[in-house]
Fold this sequence. Notes:
There is one protein chain. The chain is mainly alpha-helical. Helix content is about 45%, strand content about 5%. It folds into 2 domains: about 1-140 and about 280-285, Orthogonal Bundle (Peroxidase, domain 1), CATH 1.10.520; about 145-280, Peroxidase, domain 2 (Orthogonal Bundle). The protein has 13 helices and 5 strands. The chain has a 3-stranded antiparallel sheet with strand order 3-4-5. A hairpin with a 5-residue loop joins strand 3 (about 210) and strand 4 (about 215-220). It is globular and about 55 Å long. It starts with a helix and ends in a 23-residue tail after the last helix. 20-OXO-protoporphyrin IX containing ZN(II) binds next to helix 3, helix 8 and strand 1.
Amino acid sequence: MAADKNNNKQPTAAQLDEVKEAVRKLLHQPDYDDGSAGPVLVRLAWHSAGTYCAKTNTGGSNGAGMRYEKEGGDPANAGLQHARAFLEPLKAKFPWITYADLWTLAAVVAIKEMGGPEISWKGGRTDFTDDSKVPPRGRLPDGAQGAEHLRFIFYRMGFNDQEIVALSGAHNLGRCHADRSGFQGKWVNNPTRFSNQYYKLLLANDWKKTTLPNGVTQFVYVEEEDDGAAAAEEEGGEKPESLMMLPTDIALLSDPAFRPWVERYAADKDLFFEHFAAVFAKLLELGIKRDASGKVINDENAEDGYRS
Ligand code: ZEM
């Protein structure tokens, strides 16, 4: 009776606007990280979708499998419980929306609100009712690796080299937490503002390999004491935190197919925004089947989230 379920109510544009407004309101979190829930919400959507395997058509943002230990307890998802917790009051307030839709929609709203592009988003995802269809662990990228690993991981989802570089630009946002991934620090100075700064910094700086006290290797760049930093210190401010890159970020510089895209996105913010919007929308749709009208075609076992 999947078809009948599909005919059930879909949220109206006005209902979705209410959710979007509620997401915008919760982004401001003065006591959390850099003051915004935005970056971790973007990572939640990415990790929910980034398990997709094109060959077996498994994984992807449908199902919201991270609610189950099998996926949520994956060390690769450490820290994302914060993102889920930020959204829990919204799920309580708007019970008609599925977790899978809420998690992906929240990222799209956060990116826009942090100054990024408008990303097209379609609803209709369902939530799994048990963990039987949760994808296996080990499908998400490992920041300690290089270009070959990036291709292995992202080609599996159906992305190409240009799309890998465009997606990596999300590292304009947020930071690494030693107690989550082992890596430490932020990629750019303003990690709650979506921009192409990540690519500019990749190219402009001399990144030095360093090993953290926990044994994890990453790349760092300690900023020159420019006027801004000197002024901040005079005002009693702290010295700027050194910026960082993961080994996978640095791999974009040395790879002959990736690097030209780093250069183009560093030089052309509009091009980056356009390509990022397209590739992030594609990411969120991986594994989701729709009919000609855009309505999700549920498989027989999925719970229709829009039944209230
Ligand atoms: Zn990330 N990412 N990511 N990423 N990511 C981290 C943080 C964030 C990789 C990775 O290992 C890590 C994409 C791609 C890749 C975000 C978005 C997207 C962290 C730090 C690591 C280690 C986690 C921590 O310690 O909290 C690797 C290897 C990637 C392969 C290219 C893609 C694609 C993304 C979205 C489109 C975001 C927003 C963050 C910041 C999270 C936060 O909590 O601030």
